[in-house]
Amino acid sequence: TAPGPRSYTTLRDEAVKLFNSLQQLESERDPVPLMQGVLQTCLDLPPLVDEIYCQLVKQTTEPPAPGGQGDLHYWQLLTCMSCTFLPSPPVLRFLHFHLDRTENRFPASEMAKYACFIREALGKTKRRECVPSLEEILVLMQRQEMICTVHCPGAPACSVAISSHTTAEEVAQELVSRLGLSQSPNLFALYEQSRRREQPVGSATLLADVLTRFE
User: Fold this and answer.
1) The whole model's pTM is what?
2) Distance of CA 199 to CAs 190, 192, 194, Å?
3) What range(s) does the FERM domain occupy (predicted)?
4) Can you list the domains of the chain with their CATH numbers?
């Protein structure tokens, strides 16, 4: 199941716990659950978002082994952060400086590719309702898109590639075009269905958040 509500102590104590999690991340063989836990804490406690961004910039500046597994784990979490939260303007400027510096120092490296991906994500990111699902984190670590399956009445299921920023309206428009319904006078929307209920998905809703709820 997706992470649910947690009980927290003081912001200072939670910041220390997050710092310890980041230290553990460097040597973690399966970093995905730990990354999701950090993201969930930031979603629940927004004042810690800037703190984690600053810590990740620090960890990816002059690392002992540039491009090593530990270094890339930090870049991968930074990628997930950039698709989930926007930092405050001063931290955002600091982050952009760090991304530019990394691309200049390590051109064509994995770090530079993450830096480029993060910069593009920051231009699209809006506050999320949910943290990325485990599947989304895995594809973000590879700088790829997710495949979303949509079941259409009277037509085969359609597979649609989505990013962390794709809205329900954008997917609905793509499906209308694929199915040749562009000239139809009807209105089209996406619905999410579970055992207990079926409800329309708001046009501005991020599909990635819907998938997290299903996870």
Assistant:
1) 0.88
2) 9, 6, 9
3) 146-215
4) 11-141 (1.25.40.530), 146-214 (3.10.20.90)
Reduced to 3 states (helix: H, G, I; strand: E, B; else coil), residue 153 is coil
At 5, the pLDDT band (50, 70, 90 cuts) reads low
Classify residue 205 as left (phi > 0), alpha (psi -120 to 50) or beta.
beta
Residue 196 has pLDDT above 90, yes or no: no
pLDDT in tens, 143-172: 999 998 888 877 788 899 999 999 999 998
> What's the whole-number mean pLDDT along residues 84-105?
97
| Residues in CB range of 85: below 8 A, 6 or more apart | 42, 43, 46, 49, 53, 125, 127, 128
- Taking the CA atoms of 30, 32, 37 and 41 in sequence, report the sign of the dihedral they define: positive
